[in-house]
Write a structure and sequence with these properties.
alpha/beta, five-stranded mixed β-sheet, 208 residues, 12% strand, 7 helices, 5 strands
Length: 208
């Protein structure tokens, strides 16, 4: 089978990084969050994913539904870092208002839980995952399978795939990659907005 996504490593191939680390300590936990007012993708520290879906007819109360679900998840898994997909650079004001409100709600609950967060722009995440800043949803899903055999059920919008990649980016940036990636793709993470990232990396013994 021929894969058309450049730069990715098929499952079982030899790693490209000489200093590859194949796992992360159980005590260090990263959450991935692809926020959406209709279908928020979540990736837990163990790599499992799910969506928080809402109904348009519920209006602003959808914020409460998402908040409640995330509070329960964070209380159970107690992440040390949350990695969130940033807002697109171009968005109609009418579409921006509800998603911006959701970002505020999520920031507030992370502050309450004392969980720092990072923001990764969509193009940066796509460059990291698929070596293409304009990668499609299908590309992101395929990239996750090629990188680590990950598969997602009922994920037509790739919300879970994006959340999975956000979690992977967090581990990678903190010096604890879950799988091998070409260095050029890993370097793309330097464009993301990391919270005291070097402190995190130092604590985990991975600072330069």
């Amino acid at each position: 089978m021929t894969h058309s996504i450049p730069g990715l490593i098929a499952v079982g191939d030899e790693p490209l990084l000489a200093d590859r680390r194949t796992g992360s300590p159980d005590e260090f936990r990263v959450f991935g969050l692809d926020l959406s007012i209709t279908s928020t993708g979540v990736c837990r520290p163990d790599g499992s994913t799910f969506r928080i879906r809402t109904r348009q007819k519920d209006g602003p109360r959808r914020l409460l539904h998402i908040r409640g679900a995330l509070i329960a998840e964070i209380a159970e898994h107690r992440p040390h870092l949350a990695v969130i997909e940033d807002l697109p650079t171009r968005m109609h004001p009418r579409s921006l208002k509800p998603i911006a409100a959701l970002h505020g709600v999520v920031q507030a609950l992370l502050l309450d839980a004392d969980v720092p967060w990072a923001y990764v722009a969509p193009a940066t995440l796509k460059k990291y995952a698929a070596d293409n800043g304009a990668a499609s949803k299908r590309d992101m899903t395929a990239a996750a399978f090629l990188a680590d055999g990950a598969q997602f059920e009922n994920d037509e919008g790739a919300d879970q795939a994006d959340a999975w990649w956000l979690r992977a980016a967090g581990y990678d940036w903190c010096g604890l990659p879950r799988f091998s990636m070409p260095q050029a793709q890993r370097d793309a993470l330097g464009k993301a907005d990391w919270p005291d990232a070097y402190v995190q990396r130092y604590v985990m013994g991975a600072a330069a």
